[in-house]
């Protein structure tokens, strides 16, 4: 097989601005959340924002793939950028890590951006304008790559777009027909609530490997009991992973439940990307034939690296 | 007066990539230096480079102005960007800090970029393609702003371009005719050596306030004795500042010499921008009517903030 992992997700560039709580309140920004905004709102917020601390490539599944490549895995990405400098930055960063990326650019829409306001308490409030990412559809699914990848990994955030849901179903069929595994991350509990039926259908019928945190798992199965939710996911999938922040991670695999503590870190700087990087480590373990416990350990290791510095992509030391 | 400080310099955006010494050697990159590269070399290095850690607005005088605005000073910038996203990022960041910036964009040239390779020893090797910045000339000098600014501050890096030298001489004349102060930073000892006669002429005839480090001061006066060089600068200017890294700063003002230690920092992360931010603090002090010693203290304070984190612009805590 040419690829260990094919990830399909939103192609986004993060624009990070330091601010204070007053700015969030004044501009009706939901603290700590990822809020989708249209181009007009994004432009208005950018105009009012303070100086940009940094711009860096982002996007949940793309972050996972960057981490996966950091471990040494061979990856491919499918997602849509615009024909602009921001898109070229995103593409450069993936290709610089040896990731295969050939999805056609949108000729009209700008590359998606996540305007991230960081407050002094290190919380991040994201305002994402999806731009070109929203245009990813069935015609962008690269069948040959999916058939040639051990695992295809889908980013739940794309469920907000009907044509992307179609693309996901198409990718799932392609992967299974070729005898490959299908993985999904639920991404966000609000996104799960918005599209619960579609998520449940995909999880029950197509997903082999499910990633989620507690809130997302509870949202998917409409229960306040995360263990009960995990047991339902256990019945639907081969492996269901539920990350629990500082409390570690619980993995349901067949009749077995594995619980691992979080990897200790001396100082938590920024928890953004912890879930993305957990998935990177876990998926790398699975593609290398490691046990579920070993894979989960690699996941906690990768998550601990990412929370010890700013930004959502791994850095060399 | 509308402005406390008008800075004229290269409009640049920093593109930061982590790498190792082998990459520097393989690609003939001079470690720790700022090397000017043409667009072709910049593009080739970018293609070979690893993933971008971050992009952020930069440029020496623009960094000084950002720091100056951080203290609360009212500033204006003159420098040339291209009609592209990178240029809009640069402009946004200055304007977000209340800095006046209206220099016309170059319709043809891309915004200048500094491709910065960071090695594990925290050294930064800069490869700067000036792009549109190179096109700044006399026609871009905004006389009304210079006449209405207490101090006009020139970035020595622009001496590599003959038309920018002309613009500098024009700006100096405008400032003095309006009874304002003229400041200059020597920027880089190699740049000083390349244009020694032109620098000396400007310092001897126009500069009221000179910023330099030891290497630059020695290069300007062609001596190995930095104190002897400072004494020559003392005869040429009202105030001559010589920063000495961890050893602090020496300021010659008339017959008086002030020596201050560096402000203590718990951990030096990245010394890039220390000189730029020293100038920010010092200039702020001068525009607020503080003594030379107080101004130098503000300079060491600003420099200590910038070396305690990555990047060359001040960050909120």
List keywords for this structure.
23% strand, alpha/beta, 317 residues, UDP-N-acetylmuramoyl-L-alanine:D-glutamate ligase, homodimer
Brief overview:
Chain A contains 12 helices and 14 strands. With 317 residues, chain A is of the alpha/beta class. The first copy, chain A, has one domain (3-12, 58-111, 130-306): Ribokinase (UDP-N-acetylmuramoyl-L-alanine:D-glutamate ligase, 3-Layer(aba) Sandwich), CATH 3.40.1190.
Could you please describe the fold and organization of this structure?
Two copies of one chain form a homodimer. By secondary structure, chain A is of the alpha/beta class. Chain A is built from twelve helices and 14 strands. Chain A has a nine-stranded mixed sheet, with helices on both faces. A five-stranded mixed sheet of chain A has the order 3-8-7-2-4. The longest helix of chain A is centred in the middle third of the chain and has 16 residues. Chain A is globular, with a radius of gyration of 18 Å. The two termini of chain A are 31 Å apart.
In CATH, the homologous superfamily of chain A goes by the name: Ribokinase
- Give the N-terminus to C-terminus distance of chain A in angstroms: 31 Å
Oligomeric form of this entry?
homodimer
CATH architecture of chain A: 3-Layer(aba) Sandwich
CATH topology name of chain A: UDP-N-acetylmuramoyl-L-alanine:D-glutamate ligase
Name the overall outline of chain A: globular
Order of helices and strands of chain A: EEHEHEHEHEEEHEHEHHEHHEEEHH
**Class by SSE composition of chain A:** alpha/beta
The CATH class of chain A is identified as Alpha Beta
Biggest sheet descriptor of chain A: 9 strands, mixed
Q: What is the radius of gyration of chain A computed over CA atoms, rounded to a whole number of angstroms?
A: 18 Å
């Amino acid at each position: 097989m040419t690829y260990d992992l094919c990830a399909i997700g939103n192609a986004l560039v993060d624009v990070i601005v330091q601010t204070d709580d007053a700015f969030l309140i004044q501009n009706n920004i939901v603290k700590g959340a990822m809020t989708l905004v249209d181009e007009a709102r994004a432009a208005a917020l950018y105009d009012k924002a303070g100086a940009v601390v940094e711009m860096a490539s982002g996007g949940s599944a793309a972050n996972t793939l960057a981490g996966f490549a950091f471990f040494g895995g061979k990856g491919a990405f499918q997602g849509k950028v615009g024909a602009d400098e921001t898109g070229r930055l995103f593409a450069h960063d993936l290709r610089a890590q040896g990731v295969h990326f050939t999805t056609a650019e949108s000729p009209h829409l700008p590359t998606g951006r996540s305007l991230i306001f960081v407050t002094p308490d290190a919380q991040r409030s994201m305002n994402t304008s999806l731009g070109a990412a929203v245009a990813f559809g069935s015609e962008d699914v690269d069948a040959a790559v999916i058939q040639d990848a051990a695992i295809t990994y889908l980013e739940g955030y794309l469920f907000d777009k009907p044509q992307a849901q179609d693309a996901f179903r198409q990718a799932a069929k392609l992967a299974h027909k070729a005898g490959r595994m299908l993985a999904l991350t639920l991404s966000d509990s609000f996104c799960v609530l918005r599209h619960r039926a579609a998520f449940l259908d995909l999880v029950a019928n197509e997903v082999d490997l499910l990633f989620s945190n507690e809130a997302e798992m509870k949202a998917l199965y409409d229960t306040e009991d995360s263990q009960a939710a995990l047991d339902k996911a256990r019945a639907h999938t081969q492996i269901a992973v539920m990350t629990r922040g500082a409390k570690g991670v619980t993995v349901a695999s067949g009749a077995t439940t594995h619980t691992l503590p979080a990897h200790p870190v001396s100082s938590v700087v920024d928890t953004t990307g912890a879930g993305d990087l957990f998935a990177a480590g876990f998926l790398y373990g699975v593609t290398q034939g490691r046990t579920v416990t070993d894979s989960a350990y690699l996941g906690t290791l990768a998550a601990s690296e990412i929370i010890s510095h700013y930004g959502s992509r791994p850095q060399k030391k």
